[in-house]
TrEMBL record:
InterPro entries, sorted: P1/P2_N_sf, Ribosomal_P1/P2, Ribosomal_P2
Protein task: Component of the ribosome, a large ribonucleoprotein complex responsible for the synthesis of proteins in the cell. The small ribosomal subunit (SSU) binds messenger RNAs (mRNAs) and translates the encoded message by selecting cognate aminoacyl-transfer RNA (tRNA) molecules. The large subunit (LSU) contains the ribosomal catalytic site termed the peptidyl transferase center (PTC), which catalyzes the formation of peptide bonds, thereby polymerizing the amino acids delivered by tRNAs into a polypeptide chain.
Classification lineage: Eukaryota, Fungi, Dikarya, Ascomycota, Saccharomycotina
Biased composition (Acidic residues): 87-104
Keyword Signal assigned: no
Protein name, UniProt field: Rpp2bp
Annotated region (Disordered), positions in chain: 68-110
Biased composition annotated in UniProt, kind: Low complexity: 68-86
Family in the record: Belongs to the eukaryotic ribosomal protein P1/P2 family.
Keywords of this entry: Ribonucleoprotein, Ribosomal protein
Amino acid sequence: MKYLAAYLLLVQGENASPSVADIKSVIESVGAEADEARINELLSSLEGKGSLEEIIAEGQKKFASAPAAGSSAGAAGAAGAAAGGDAAEEEKEEEAKEESDDDMGFGLFD
């Protein structure tokens, strides 16, 4: 993902076709290590695909046809509540504990 982000930054910075060296310099400028094999893989996957706007538009079409996340979880929660209220309540409490970051020792904005 960091390689794609670096590629997109370079394109937005008016570098129409970023090279491996360009992407590597962006990645290393923030103190991260760059894997040239992964960069080459990214560039080869984008090769011949057209403009960045066309690639993004094609990806948006794919996302539009994907099912929405959470719809099955909501149905399962409703079925659980109908079958056994106490069990569903306990499950909700467990999920709330799992989602809480209190047990990790830090929060998002600490």
